[in-house]
Amino acid sequence: MLWLSADLKFRIKQKGEYLPLLQGKSLGMIFEKRSTRTRLSTETGFALLGGHPCFLTTQDIHLGVNESLTDTARVLSSMTDAVLARVYKQSDLDTLAKEASIPIINGLSDLYHPIQILADYLTLQEHYSSLKGLTLSWIGDGNNILHSIMMSAAKFGMHLQAATPKGYEPDPSVTKLAEQYAKENGTKLLLTNDPLEAAHGGNVLITDTWISMGQEEEKKKRLQAFQGYQVTMKTAKVAASDWTFLHCLPRKPEEVDDEVFYSPRSLVFPEAENRKWTIMAVMVSLLTDYSPQLQKPKF
Questions:
Q1: Coiled-coil segments, which residues (predicted)?
Q2: Which CATH code fits 112-269?
Q3: Which end of the chain has the least Cβ crowding within 10 Å, N or C?
Q4: How far is Cα 221 from Cα 201, in angstroms, rounded to an integer?
Q5: Is 248 one of the catalytic residues?
Q6: What's the CATH code, domain 10-109?
Q7: Closest of 280, 190, 202 to residue 243, by C-alpha
C-alpha cells in the first residue's frame, strides 16, 4: 500500500493524470467522532478517483442505538462498496467487519489508527528514502497511534523507543504482540517512563494529543501526569543528528513547542497531506486490481 500510495501521488500530483479507478464505486463514511484530516482525505481522495463518498454522522447513523450493528452492516453492504468507520469502540468495528460482506476500514478506534500510520510511514519513506533501520521515538500517551506503530514498525525493520507516563502505558496485549514482532524481525523495542531515554538516538521524534476525544474530563489529571513530556529542542539534543518530528494533529503547545513544531525538521504538514494519498491507496487496493506503475521503492 505504501508503494501504491507513492504511485498515485506521483501520477496524479506530479504528472497531473486523471485516474478514475473508482468510477461507479461508493463509500460509506461513518463518523462517531469529529475529524478534519480523516474526513477530508477520504472524501476528496475517493472523489478524485471517480467514486462517490457518502458522509454519515451520529445524527444520520447512531451505531447500535436506533439500529443494530448487524442490520447496519447488512444494509451498508447492499448499497456501498466499502465502509470507513471512525468509532469509539474497536468492538463495533469488529462486529461490522464480521457482519458486512464488504470491506470495513478502521478510520480510528480506541485501540488503533492504522490509516494514520500509513501516512506517517510514507512521509518517512519520502524523507529518508528507506524505513529499515530507523529508530522511532514516541513520547506521549500509550494510545491508539502508539498501538498501531507497535503493530507495524518491526515489520519494516524499524526500532521503537516509547516513553509514556506511569499509568498511561500501552495496552498489555498490544505490548505482548509487539515484543513478538520485534523478536521475529530482529528489531529493538524499548518501553520506558523517561522521555529522554526514548528520544536518545532516535531518528524520528513522535508525539500526539495527550487528551483524546472522550477524555476531556481527565484533562487536569492528564496534564499533571504528562509534565516533562513536551517535545522541545532539549529533547532533540539527545536524538540522532538527522532527527525529524511527526505529529498526527491537531496539536496543542503543551505537547510540542513552536520551535520544534514549526522547524525545518518538522514533517507534520507533509504527513497530513499524505493522509490523502495513503487512504486512496487503501481504497484502490481493496476495490480494484490496479498495479503500481512506479518502480517499487526500497523500504
A1: none
A2: 3.40.50.1370
A3: C
A4: 30
A5: yes
A6: 3.40.50.1370
A7: 202
